Amino acid sequence: MVNEKIKAAEENLIHVYNRFPIALERGEGVYLYDTNGKKYLDFAAGFAVSGLGYGNQKLNAALKFQIDQLYHTSNLYYHMNCGEAAQKLNQISGMDRVFFTNSGSEANEGALKAARRYAYNKKSGRYQFIAMENSFHGRSFGAVSVTGHTAYREPFEPMLPGVSFAEFNNLDSVKALVTDQTCAIILEPLQGEGGINLATQEFMEGIRRICDENDILMICDEVQCGMGRTGAMFAWQKFGVKPDILTMAKGIGNGIPVGAFAMTEKVAQASLKPGDHGATYGGNPLACMAVKTVIDIFEEEKIVEHVNEVSEYLTDRLEELVQHVDGVLERKGTGLMQGIVLKKPAAQVNNRAIEEGLLVIQAQGNVLRLVPPLIIEKEHVDEMIPKLTKALTE
């Protein structure tokens, strides 16, 4: 239970979160502990953020070192961390240029602006976006405008003009929306909030073809599904379908607030110019130290290879759950971004899982989302299954 001091402090906040009745205090590896000392197996990773888990000594040491050196200047000056983080991020993402933000929402805002600026520079007059139903791109105004859930958009309408929504994995529905005013198509290769919906190979290739034939930019939002979570460093690489603009956040900083949007050289040369975009804290020395250190750890510890190995085991165990637990209808997803479709309300199962010492997340479509730290082992999967089974059956 949350103690009275925490409850009193919470009263000073604007009530925009429906928090669970636990107060987390510390973490170690793939476990979190609350203020009462209760231990939780974490299959949520702070919304797919903490890929390296908690207490990674190399990352902690790098951040402590940077705090003693310098953690903010402004983007009027150069600093090595920003350049080195950008170089490493471009190498693993396959892109050419990157801009650092503070979050995934900001990354998507930047991507939308870059697409509009690209159209402006080409004097095409294009301004429209095609987005996907059941998508989620963030909480800022532009990001909500291209988010395919009415409940997120309706309270804030009118939204950004010129946005239409196609059916995910239905190429004909996308083609029907393309006009001579379309500047970009934005999609998640694997939808997270929308219910763990994986794009098909045909859909990704078809989107790329539509964009190439009509001089439209393809934006891939990999804020949640990027950084090793699907078994590739970025999900587009599994499809072999390269976007023009790629957005990312969450896992690239392992919990330090940082996001980024990256683009090909072609788009970089014909879109944003000095003064078009900025971020006071974006690309600060501390955040960039996190990014470059996280990438080093990924490479040194072969995190992506590990994801592919342990995710096969997770997939098998979840398929067994589908077969043997009456309340589970289907397994969805890939890598360490998976979900199960439930008969009973996901919120109810989520609450029971917490009682069992297991943290998971809900998603749209009555889906329970499993996005653990990427360092989990098979033994952690074996520990999770009985906890989840209890939450599903009791």
TrEMBL record:
Binding site for N(2)-acetyl-L-ornithine: R139
Quaternary structure, from the entry: Homodimer.
Name of encoding gene: argD
PROSITE patterns in the cross-refs: AA_TRANSFER_CLASS_3
Subcellular location: Cytoplasm
Coiled coil regions, renumbered to chain: none
This protein's name: Acetylornithine aminotransferase
Pfam families linked: Aminotran_3
Binding site for pyridoxal 5'-phosphate: F136, D221, E222, V223, Q224, T280
Comment field (misc): May also have succinyldiaminopimelate aminotransferase activity, thus carrying out the corresponding step in lysine biosynthesis.
Alphabetized UniProt keyword annotations: Amino-acid biosynthesis, Aminotransferase, Arginine biosynthesis, Cytoplasm, Pyridoxal phosphate, Transferase
EC number(s) stated in the UniProt entry for this protein: 2.6.1.11
Manner of cofactor binding, per the entry note: Binds 1 pyridoxal phosphate per subunit.
Gene Ontology terms for molecular function: identical protein binding; N2-acetyl-L-ornithine:2-oxoglutarate 5-aminotransferase activity; pyridoxal phosphate binding
Residues modified as N6-(pyridoxal phosphate)lysine: K250
First-tier enzyme category under EC: transferase
Biochemical pathway: Amino-acid biosynthesis; L-arginine biosynthesis; N(2)-acetyl-L-ornithine from L-glutamate: step 4/4
Cellular component GO terms held in the UniProt record: cytoplasm
Taxonomic classification: Bacteria, Bacillati, Bacillota, Clostridia, Lachnospirales
Cofactor: pyridoxal 5'-phosphate
Any GO BP annotation: L-arginine biosynthetic process
Protein family: Belongs to the class-III pyridoxal-phosphate-dependent aminotransferase family. ArgD subfamily.
SUPFAM superfamilies according to UniProt: PLP-dependent transferases (SSF53383)
Catalysed reactions listed for this entry: N(2)-acetyl-L-ornithine + 2-oxoglutarate = N-acetyl-L-glutamate 5-semialdehyde + L-glutamate
Natural source organism: Mediterraneibacter gnavus (strain CC55_001C)
